[in-house]
Amino acid sequence: MKEVIKIEGGHRLNGKVTIGGAKNATVALIPAAILADKSVVDIFGVPDISDVESLVELLEALNVKVTKIGEDHFVFDTTNMENRDLDIDAVTRLRASYYFMGALLGKYGYVKMVMPGGCYLGPRPFDLHLKGFEALGATYVYDQGYYTIKADKLVGAKIFLDFASVGATINIMLAAVLAEGRTVIENAAKEPEIIDVANFLTKMGANIRGAGTNVITIEGVERLEGKPHDIIPDRIEAGTYIIMAAAMADDVTIENIIPHHLESLTSKLIEMGVNMEIGIDSIRVLRSDDLKSVDITTQVYPGFATDLQQPMTTLLTKAEGFSSVRETIYTERFKHCIELQRMGAKINVATAQAVIQGNGPLFGNKVVATDLRCGAALVVAGLMADGETEIQDVYHIDRGYDDIDNKLIALGAKIRREFVE
Ligand code: EPU
User: Which atom of ligand 1 is nearest to the CA of 236?
Assistant: First the structure.
């Protein structure tokens, strides 16, 4: 038996939806919490997603005490923490388990863990993370699927990233906050999640400047102490609901967001003719017909987010004329297009690019969520389609979308889960 999501398409959406804490900040903040020396860390706004469950398993394997208080408040107690080899399944369930490399290396000078997993989006090397650790004085061995990284002592260094990688920027920060002396990360990534992690580490006693710019400077400190932190809202979850609303709203308000983080999306939607009112911490989307085609190129922040490229592709099937989507971050991130074709979408996929012929109806069909944001693209498609859509491999969606079924039901969508053969 496998779990599927079934959506009866064509129902207009109305009402309000509240966005949760950012997944891609959360999955770094939880490993960052282990840097707290024998103390308690309170994190608020933790989304109810399966990636968090996997990270909690990893913390428990390290003997960190995890307590959940209320809906979204977690307490992590590192008093009895021990550095153990991470060879449990949870490591391979998500990409972000690699943040334990930086955090454990920074704290103990030694980490051994199995190769991390996560969505397949084409090759996802982590050479830049390793290059950063080496620059700080660590050595690593990769043997039989395990990374062993160690250092007698980490010493600050100047590190130029060949690509402004989100993961490498955060991982090097995690390793460097307790290193001796100054680390400078050049060509650092600028995503809001990086600022959130830097703010959290700073509250705990770290000395970090420049997060959110392309040069981050870290002066190593001797000790970090647990402090409370509130996670920023999830710009990708928010963007996904804005796209759903652009497709199907009569009147939908997306709340608890930072509109500034979404400007690359909202500017494209305005270009398409989506009827939106942008507030201070919310966006209201009104019924939007006669959408126009647009061209999109994914880029590092503040450019158009690759994570929203997939749900956006679905919306573009509704726009008049030809739109194009070009990927510069993950050139193979187009599996959703094959699934959308099964629903009648007219999309040509070439190298790192898709061309969408819009204004064609979508029809319900059986489709597969091949990765997290492909799943989101298919939910958007299911809401738009004539008839019923069955989405398989929904565990991908549950890795990153907090309570998606109930949030959509509250907006008037007809969506349910079933177990099928
Ligand atoms: N890259 C390298 N070497 C490295 C690291 C990255 O070549 O050592 C390349 C990647 O192959 C890719 C590009 O650099 O082509 C960007 O990778 P980045 O390191 O920035 O991505 P990431 O840290 O692995 C995070 C998010 C992704 C999001 C990307 C880009 C997390 C846990 N994941 O991944 O989120 O797509 O940044 O913004 O933060 C998702 O949420 O669905 C998701 C995949």
Answer: 41
Amino acid at 233: P
Atom of ligand 1 lying closest to residue 191 CA: 38
Instruction: Spell 127-160 as b/e; 16+ CB within 10 A means b.
Output: ebbbebbebbbbebeeeeeebebbbeebbbbebe
For the stretch 362-416, pLDDT in tens is 999 999 999 999 999 999 999 999 999 999 999 999 999 999 999 999 999 999 9
Cβ of 72: how many Cβ atoms within 10 Å?
19
Contact 36, 206 (CB under 8 A): no
pLDDT at 120: 78
pLDDT (tens digit per residue) in 330-374? 999 999 999 999 999 999 999 999 999 999 899 999 999 999 999
Q: What does the longest C-alpha to C-alpha distance in the chain come to? A: 63
Determine whether 374 is an active site residue: no
Strand partners, 113: 86, 147
- pLDDT number for residue 183: 98
Threshold 0.85, pTM exceeds: yes
Instruction: Look at phi and psi of residue 145 and say left if phi exceeds 0, alpha if psi is from -120 to 50, else beta.
Output: left
Q: Which of 124, 161, 300, 310 to mutate to test the pocket of ligand 1 (most atoms within 8 A of CB)?
A: 124
Nearest residue to 256 via CA among 276, 242, 246, 245: 242
| DSSP-derived pairing of the beta strands 414-420 and 2-8 | antiparallel
Q: What mean pLDDT is reported for the chain?
A: 96
At residue 393, what is the residue type? Answer: D
Residues 50, 414: Cα–Cα separation, whole Å: 23
Q: Are 12 and 244 in contact (CB under 8 A)?
A: no
